[in-house]
Amino acid sequence: MTNDKKLSLEAEQLVDRLARVLSSQKKLGGDSYPLSLGRLVALAEISLKTVSDLANNKLFKDRIVSARKIDKKKPDHDIPVALSEDTEQLATSSFTLEYLLNLRRTAKIRAFSVTELAGKLASSSVPAKDIRGLFKNHINQQIQRGLSGSHKVAWVHCRTPKLFLLSDVNPDKALVSGQRDFPPQIAPLATGSGDRKTAVNTSCDLKSFYQSFDLAFDRINRTDGGHNFVSLVELRRELGTFNREAFDQYLHDLRLTGRYTLIAAQGRSGGLKAEELEAAINEAGKLLLYVSRIRG
């Protein structure tokens, strides 16, 4: 057997091993697929260097797709990968969206348009315009429906929708310089005395609250069994970037739209925990503690 045939056989065996791992992860579903390049090589027990050397091989490109080209010298182990037949699933996955935001974000810039994010997609397996088109169409549809494409991501509409990681709207997360860091278009509101939380205060803050509230409600409701009965304790905790005054005002505005209603903690006023008493809203002598989405 010639050296060329030997190398070709080795490449075929390696690609086959990688494809089998991807297929097994696909069967698991959920967050298991698509997965990162680093996770793939670990499961396949192949070195990252070996895969990066193999990435431009036609066998590899025919069977495996990556969200970005795999650099032979400096391969990025976080790049999302999938089987070539699942190019659309890769382009529209929340994992890819989160990867692109992490890839683009800097110390000063944390929010990006759909087009800016799509510009970072460049696979060796499919034309860039194809994978970018799939990504843009999906995210734009999600935004039109009031969603973001990931429970870890939110967006604000300032001239154009800008997406950002919810973890970047954490007032307790400080820069090395000691100053608090917020996404563009989102600035900290001057806080009063005590331990009042920082609130978002821009022309986009109300839409930001609506988006964040919907995401938080869905996440908590899903975790609690989908009973459509979510405590204000958990919602205030999730939306900790809004102070009490801003949270209550925006929630009031949200209720006026007919999307949510508040439910009293009936018969529990004497048995409420301190954090429940603190989180509840007192209206006409009733302690409103639970939120329910109005269906229909």
* Count of β-strands: 9
Strand content: 5-15%
Largest sheet: 4 strands, antiparallel
Question: Please, what is the average pLDDT?
Answer: 80
Distance between the termini: 69 Å
List its traits.
296 residues; alpha+beta; 9 strands
Describe the model.
- It contains twelve helices and nine strands.
- The protein is an alpha+beta fold.
- The chain has a domain at 199-296.
- Strands 6, 7, 8 and 9 form a four-stranded antiparallel beta sheet that branches. A three-stranded antiparallel beta sheet has the order 1-3-2. It has a two-stranded antiparallel ribbon with strand order 4-5.
- The longest helix is centred in the N-terminal third of the chain and has 26 residues, at 3-28.
- It is elongated and about 80 Å long.
Short description:
The chain is an alpha+beta fold and 296 residues long. The protein is built from twelve helices and nine strands. The radius of gyration is 23 Å and the shape is elongated.
What is the topological layout?
Elements: H1 3-28, E1 35-36, H2 37-44, H3 48-54, H4 58-63, E2 64-66, E3 80-83, H5 87-92, H6 94-104, H7 114-118, H8 128-144, E4 153-158, E5 160-165, H9 205-223, E6 230-231, H10 232-238, H11 244-256, E7 260-264, H12 274-279, E8 281-283, E9 286-293
Antiparallel strand pairs: 1-3, 2-3, 4-5, 6-9, 7-9, 8-9
Helix pairs in contact: 1-2
